[in-house]
Design goal:
The chain is built from 20 helices and 12 strands. It is of the alpha/beta class. Pfam families: SBP_bac_1 (PF01547).
């Protein structure tokens, strides 16, 4: 059933994927009309810009503050803000692509870029960025993540922030046990074992077995194996089932129930965070978003949040973390003004303001050097890891139409079987690799 459903989804987006050719042609001078034949226009650079926030409610206040700043600096442009809940955003955009009514500017993160671009809905932004005051000012790894996520042909979104993966650990528990900081994988595994005392309901680690488990497992695999590309040299075969990755997953999954709670089999991030904050667990992998929860639970001096442990040769390898950004919709009738807003929102001062509020890594390199970063150590270290050359990012194939299904619904139950001993790491990763290789082949065929 899963195979037939996936084929149906592929058939449904086949026509949309064909639009990638039109998008490429646009860069070569073709009219590149968007969905419904509406290619939009540059406009006067004045008037109204409609902006859809892809995390409405959570980020509404800070976006309204940025909009106020923008309108003061650009009195001839008015920005109309519409906040849309993250859970509803993609479906609303997809509906509007088919039926009309898209905004000028909208949130376009890595997980959405390919889908929107394949339907011909997004304006390529490479040329605008090259001529902009932002040129050379944005974090290169974030730009590359968004370009890769959109299919690699063009940049369809200007990055605003990254919500990097973090290894949180209890410094007080480490000190009491005489443990070194878990800065490499050997120290991580040693600490997980030493901090476990099941009779006292104390565990060294909490592993993600519920929703969102695949991305965390991939991060642990590539971090330990040191493999730096998701695809082999041919670009056709994934490296997920490379023997080094299989061995890494076997070791990682071996933590379950040995040094982790049994409840982890079904735990998503909210349950994991709550479990860690209850005070009996030594380490947790999550992202910057839970930092304030840990501050509330422990204060600032009983825990730390650091980048993923280093692997072979002291090198750190991480899979690409969620990068958010701002895209321009091709149907916009006021692209000049829309670009001014995107450019302003990702400028030094405004990008710093946004990410200080969000607790994430700024995309603007100057913003990443601001003093507030030092007050939130996990953000400071995450920002440094992305810019100091210490970390290699393995780009996940967000551009594949089936990526979200493959990495979630199709394989999360399979990962639970590996954790529970019903399946081997090799069986699981071979199945995952087969699905990915087929999806990659179909994507390549659609691109022609």
């Amino acid at each position: 059933m899963k195979i037939s459903n996936r084929r149906s989804r592929r058939a449904a987006v086949a026509v949309a994927l064909g639009s990638v050719l039109a998008l490429t042609a646009t860069a070569c001078g073709d009219d590149g009309s968007g969905t419904g034949g509406d290619k939009g226009s540059e406009g006067s650079g004045k008037g109204k810009v409609l902006f859809w926030d892809n995390n409405g409610g959570v980020r509404t206040d800070i976006w309204k503050e940025i909009i106020t700043d923008f309108e003061k600096a650009n009195p001839d442009i008015e920005v109309e803000y519409v906040g849309i809940a993250a859970t509803e955003y993609q479906s609303k955009v997809d509906t509007s692509i088919q039926g009309g009514g898209l905004p000028d500017v909208g949130g376009v993160g890595a997980a959405m870029a390919a889908g929107f671009a394949a339907q011909g809905a997004l304006e390529p932004l490479d040329d605008r960025l090259a001529k902009s005051s932002l040129s050379g000012k944005l974090n290169e790894s974030m730009v590359e993540s968004l370009k890769s996520a959109g299919g690699g042909e063009a940049l369809y979104s200007i990055p605003t922030s990254a919500n990097n993966g973090v290894l949180y650990y209890r410094t007080d528990l480490f000190k009491a046990a005489g443990l070194a900081d878990p800065t490499d994988w050997d120290k991580f595994y040693a600490a997980a074992e030493k901090l476990t005392d099941k009779d006292k309901n104390a565990f060294g680690y909490t592993i993600r077995g519920g929703a969102g488990s695949i991305a965390q497992a991939l991060d642990a695999m590539y971090g330990q194996s040191g493999i730096t590309s998701f695809w082999d040299a041919s670009g056709e075969k994934t490296t997920v089932n490379d023997p080094k990755n299989i061995a890494a997953l076997e070791k990682y999954v071996g933590l379950y129930k040995k040094v982790t709670p049994a409840a982890d089999l079904n735990n998503d991030f909210t349950k994991m965070v709550a479990q860690f904050d209850s005070g009996t667990i030594g380490m947790l992998n999550h992202n910057l978003g839970s930092y304030q929860d840990h501050v509330k639970a422990f204060g600032a001096d009983r825990f730390r949040g650091i980048p993923q442990p280093t692997g072979p040769g002291g090198k750190r390898v991480q899979v690409s973390n969620p990068v958010d950004g701002l895209g321009m919709f091709k149907s916009s009738k006021n692209k000049e003004a829309a670009w001014k807003f995107i450019e302003f929102a990702t400028s030094h001062e405004e990008n710093s303001k946004f990410n200080k509020s969000a607790g994430q890594v700024p995309s603007n390199n100057d913003a990443a050097k601001d003093t507030w970063i030092s007050d939130a150590e996990p953000t400071k270290l995450a920002a440094a890891a992305l810019t100091d050359g210490s970390t290699t990012i393995v780009q996940l194939p967000y551009y594949l139409p089936d990526w979200n299904t493959i990495s979630k619904a199709d394989n999360e139950p399979g990962f639970q079987k590996v954790m529970d001993g019903q399946s081997s790491a090799k069986e699981f990763l071979d199945t995952l690799a087969d699905q990915l290789n087929k999806a990659q082949a179909e994507w390549s065929e659609q691109k022609g």
